[in-house]
């Protein structure tokens, strides 16, 4: 049996019916991780997976009930805490960090008898769009190893596409689940802000950070998201989100007027147009909607999230988290030298950019204006969703680019054009593979109103995505 | 646009950019600020008044948390405390 072809639900069902043992499942995926290690998607397969699998198998044999993810190996991004295990944010600064507790989402997975299987590569502190900024080296695209896997959850997306695990958890601050999902031909969602507790996830930008599953199918994604979602007293921004919404047989599908010209100039213009025609031919209605300030989203995102990052990363001071510069003699040296030696270039850039937009003389012109654009965008999207059920855009402007091709930070940031609006406004957005250019997948982004994940998943299943993966 | 004072930002950020990387870093940083500069030119004065709000806080309730060792990952520790260089002469 090729276990990598089974859905998450199928694995759990087969394990609970003893048609497959949890040990067989983890052995299968551990072997695949070893075979595909050149892609560098997985940093570490945890050393207790067989022990955990045996515990689940023993429980089933003794007739005790098991959870909805019985024996399902789940990989987690290297910025999510799992008690007693290493977690480094792919940073030299955190190279020896051991998680003192588990993230709420990890506890929820374990309570359904999932096996926390491995940790996946990422851009350092989730800052980047290619998984090239990692202390562990670049993660390669699952479909073309000369190309990037995207980022920052590049390891999670590539791992799923390569069949190294049936589901991986990523985090998305401005597109970090959706863009690598698009690049590797898998399914990834950034849910409504607050849907998944951020407790136990290393904060980058607290007003947009969200964790969620990356899977091969839309059904798997919905299934796992429903397990990790929920209000958590440890995260005051978390919400109760039933992931529902009013499903219909035919949907009103919005296309954003202000993006038309931009999309027409992209390599994916033809495929996107064809997708619109396909949606129409299925009986859904296409509606042009207006989000007047959408093209300011990128600038707004690169003001607000560095501002939050500069505060969040102030805690890495050389005193509390594993790294302290050996040459530090006075307290200020402990801060400056530890941070300068421990952080990579992109992280330093974002901390300094955040301090720039928050500093005296620039706060009103940049940060305050950025906050104003964010609230404008929220209102403009709310208005747009009065006329349509979902809005579609390409997930990314291009297919996965070559490793090393985007050394200029601006060209890297431009990748986030379509993904940042949902992040800034807290709206849910799903990326599904829908077409390809020269064998490389393209993702379609489906956005919805707040808490309308049910509608997004239903529409996605109706239009059907292409399945990639190896 | 004025030249950005990188040294001041290094001080604010408790970071030091390596001299060998300084020229490239400054050039990239200037480009990024120019990239986000479009925001400053928008005329959205009404929204600006409304934009920066304080979050509402929940009631502070005492609950029992799991036991977590705050010193687990400290690079230097002694007698249940973090260790830093001497700060008072």
Question: Gist?
Answer:
By secondary structure, chain A is an alpha/beta fold. Chain A has one domain: Amidase signature (AS) domain (Amidase signature (AS) enzymes, Alpha-Beta Complex). Chain A contains 16 helices and eleven strands.
Structure, described:
The complex is a heterodimer of chains A (470) and B (89). Chain A has a single domain (1-470), classed as Alpha-Beta Complex (Amidase signature (AS) enzymes), CATH 3.90.1300. Helix content of chain A is 38%, strand content 14%. Chain A has helices at residues 8-16, 22-35, 49-61, 104-111, 154-161, 178-184, 218-228, 260-264, 269-281, 297-312, 331-342, 345-358, 363-387, 409-413, 420-425, 453-463, and strands at 42-45, 73-77, 115-120, 167-172, 187-190, 210-215, 252-256, 285-289, 390-394, 429-437, 440-448. An eleven-stranded mixed sheet of chain A has the order 1-3-2-4-6-5-10-11-9-7-8. In chain A, helix 2 (22-35) packs antiparallel against helix 3 (49-61). The mean pLDDT of chain A is 96. The radius of gyration of chain B is 22 Å and the shape is flat. The termini of chain B are far apart. The model of chain B has no long low-confidence stretch (mean pLDDT 88). Chain B has a domain at 1-47. Chain B is 37% helix and 4% strand. Chain B has a two-stranded antiparallel ribbon with strand order 1-2. Chain B has 89 residues and is mainly alpha-helical. At the A-B interface, helix 10, helix 11, helix 12, helix 13 and helix 14 of A face helix 1, helix 2 and helix 3 of B.
Q: What share of residues of chain B is helical?
A: 25-40%
Low-confidence stretches of chain B: none
Report the CATH C-level class of chain A. Answer: Alpha Beta
β-strand amount of chain A: 5-15%
Strand order of the largest sheet of chain B: 1-2
- By secondary-structure content and strand pairing, the structural class of chain B works out as mainly alpha
Number of helices of chain B: 3
Output the CATH homologous superfamily of chain A: Amidase signature (AS) domain
Report the count of strand segments of chain A: 11
Oligomer: heterodimer
The greatest interface here is: A-B, 63 and 48 residues
What spatial order of strands do you see in the largest sheet of chain A? Answer: 1-3-2-4-6-5-10-11-9-7-8
pLDDT < 50 stretches of chain A: none
Main sheet of chain B? Answer: 2 strands, antiparallel
What's the helix-strand series of chain A?
A: HHEHEHEHEHEEHEHHEHHHHEHHEEH
Q: Specify the number of helices of chain A.
A: 16
């Amino acid at each position: 049996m090729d276990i990598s072809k089974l859905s998450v639900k199928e694995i759990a069902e087969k394990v609970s019916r003893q048609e497959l043992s949890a040990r067989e499942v983890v052995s299968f995926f551990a072997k695949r991780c070893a075979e595909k290690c050149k892609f560098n998607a997985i940093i570490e397969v945890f050393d207790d997976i067989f022990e955990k699998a045996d515990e689940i198998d023993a429980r089933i044999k003794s007739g005790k009930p098991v959870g909805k993810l019985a024996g399902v190996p789940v990989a987690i991004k290297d910025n999510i805490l799992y008690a007693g295990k290493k977690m480094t944010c792919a940073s030299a600064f955190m190279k020896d960090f051991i998680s003192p507790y588990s993230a709420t989402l990890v506890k929820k997975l374990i309570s359904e008898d999932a096996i926390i299987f491995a940790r996946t590569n990422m851009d350092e502190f989730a800052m980047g769009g290619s998984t090239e900024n990692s202390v562990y080296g670049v993660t390669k695209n699952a479909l073309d190893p000369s190309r990037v896997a995207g980022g920052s959850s590049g390891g999670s997306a590539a791992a799923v596409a390569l069949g190294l695990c049936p589901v991986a958890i990523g985090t998305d601050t401005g597109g970090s689940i959706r863009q690598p999902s698009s690049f590797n031909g898998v399914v990834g969602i950034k849910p409504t802000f607050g849907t998944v507790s951020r407790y136990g996830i290393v904060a980058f930008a607290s007003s947009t950070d969200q964790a969620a599953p990356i899977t091969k199918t839309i059904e798997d994604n919905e299934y796992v998201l429903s397990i990790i979602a929920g209000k958590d007293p440890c995260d005051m921004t978390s919400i109760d989100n039933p992931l529902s919404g009013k499903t219909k047989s035919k949907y009103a599908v919005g296309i954003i007027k202000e993006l038309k010209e931009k999309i027409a100039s992209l390599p994916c213009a033809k495929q996107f147009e064809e997708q619109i025609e396909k949606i129409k031919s299925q009986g859904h209605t296409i509606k042009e909607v207006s989000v007047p300030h959408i093209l300011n989203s990128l600038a707004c995102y690169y003001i607000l999230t560095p501002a939050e990052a500069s505060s969040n990363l102030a805690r890495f001071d050389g005193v509390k988290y594993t790294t302290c510069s050996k040459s530090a003699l006075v307290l200020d040296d402990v801060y400056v030298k530890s941070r300068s030696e421990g952080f990579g270039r992109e992280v330093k850039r974002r901390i300094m950019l955040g301090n720039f937009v928050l500093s005296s003389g620039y706060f009103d012109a940049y940060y305050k204006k950025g906050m104003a654009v964010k609230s404008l965008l929220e209102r403009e999207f709310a208005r747009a969703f009065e006329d349509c059920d979902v809005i579609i855009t390409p997930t990314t402007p291009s297919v996965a680019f070559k490793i090393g091709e985007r050394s200029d930070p601006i060209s890297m940031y431009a990748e986030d054009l379509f993904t940042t609006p949902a992040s800034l406004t807290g709206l849910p957005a799903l990326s599904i593979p829908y077409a390809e250019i020269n064998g490389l997948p393209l993702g379609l982004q489906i956005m919805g109103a707040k808490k309308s994940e049910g509608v997004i998943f239903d529409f996605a299943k109706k239009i059907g995505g292409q399945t990639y993966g190896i | 646009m004025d030249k950005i004072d990188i040294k001041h930002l290094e001080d604010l950020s408790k970071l030091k950019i390596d001299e060998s990387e300084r020229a490239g870093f400054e050039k990239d940083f200037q480009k990024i600020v120019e990239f986000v500069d479009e925001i400053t030119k928008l005329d959205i004065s009404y929204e600006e008044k409304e934009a920066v709000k304080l979050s509402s806080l929940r009631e502070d309730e005492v609950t029992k948390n799991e036991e977590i060792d705050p010193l687990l990952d400290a690079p230097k520790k002694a007698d249940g405390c973090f260790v830093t260089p001497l700060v008072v002469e």
